[in-house]
Write a structure and sequence with these properties.
The chain has 269 residues and is of the alpha/beta class. The protein contains ten helices and seven strands. Helix 6 links the parallel strand 4 and strand 5. Helix 7 crosses helix 10. The longest helix is centred in the first third of the chain and has 14 residues. 39% of the residues are buried.
């Protein structure tokens, strides 16, 4: 068993539960989404079919729908709860299409998408090659795949604090791939001319409880196969808190690091 494989049914349930609180806790997700949408403005494209893969509660879909008024815009997510929340937005004309589906087996036709957009979603899959192969399959020749994911320095403070509490006995944080490995995976499936870069961000919180509430609020609970089963003891929780407290900065806040990987590639001819 790979301890870092995620239990996708558990992930889906977590996102279903978090759908109503997602927007208020998704600070990082909002920053990354805005950065991606800004980058998208630099591409001179006029897509007729746009898919937001892993659309969550639909914030990016709204912008994509306004930016490309002639396009058919699809919001796709494997959480029905997120899609229910997203579908509360009902424009008068050219309503988005909301589709429940898995990134590793997209319910989309071959060569049917001009722009495949995905912000901080692909890290929730278990098979990056399958996700990228599906992106390659559904893109039209010359179509654009723009995505972001998380790199290995993400949540490094939380990972280290848990390691000090249980000597690394359990997996508490997902494993995230290096930017170069992600770029190589794009090439292997036949996506063209990949462009990759990375940005490091640090969010700050008042205490460990605020960090955990924020992660739970966006549905980012520990769903790895190597997680501890059953309730974590109060002693281990306290050890983790004490280890994290050692990282409190001069501003009096606790840091949470994220390594954000941005990728862009093109559909094959």
């Amino acid at each position: 068993m790979n301890e870092f494989l995620v239990d996708k049914s558990r992930v889906r349930r977590a996102f279903d539960r978090a759908a109503k609180t997602y927007a208020q806790h998704a600070r990082l997700q909002a920053l990354v989404r805005e950065e991606m949408l800004a980058r998208l403005q630099g591409l001179k494209i006029e897509p007729l079919t746009v898919v937001d893969m892993g659309c969550g509660s639909g914030e990016a879909v709204r912008v994509l729908r306004q930016r490309y008024p002639r396009a058919r815009v699809v919001g796709l997510d494997f959480s029905s709860g997120m899609l229910q929340e997203a579908s509360r937005w009902r424009p008068w004309v050219r309503k988005p299409l909301w589709v429940c589906g898995d990134m590793e087996r997209l319910p989309l036709g071959d060569a049917s998408v001009d722009l495949l957009f995905s912000s901080l979603s692909v890290q929730w899959g278990n098979d990056l090659a399958a996700i990228f192969s599906e992106a390659r399959r559904v893109l039209k020749p010359g179509g654009v795949f723009m995505f972001s994911t998380l790199g290995p320095d993400t949540l490094k403070e939380l990972r280290a604090a848990w390691r000090s509490a249980d000597d690394g006995q359990y997996a508490h944080v997902n494993m995230f791939l290096d930017m170069h490995d992600v770029g190589d995976a794009l090439l292997r499936v036949g996506l063209r001319d990949p462009v990759m870069d990375v940005e490091r961000m640090t969010l700050r919180y008042a205490d460990v409880d605020a960090i955990m509430r924020s992660l739970k609020g966006i549905g980012a609970q520990n769903s790895t196969q190597g997680r501890a089963r059953g309730l974590t003891s109060k002693r281990r929780l306290q050890q983790m808190r004490e280890a994290y407290e050692n990282l409190r900065g001069e501003d009096g806040l606790l840091p949470v690091s994220y390594e954000v990987v941005y990728g862009l590639a093109w559909g094959g001819e």
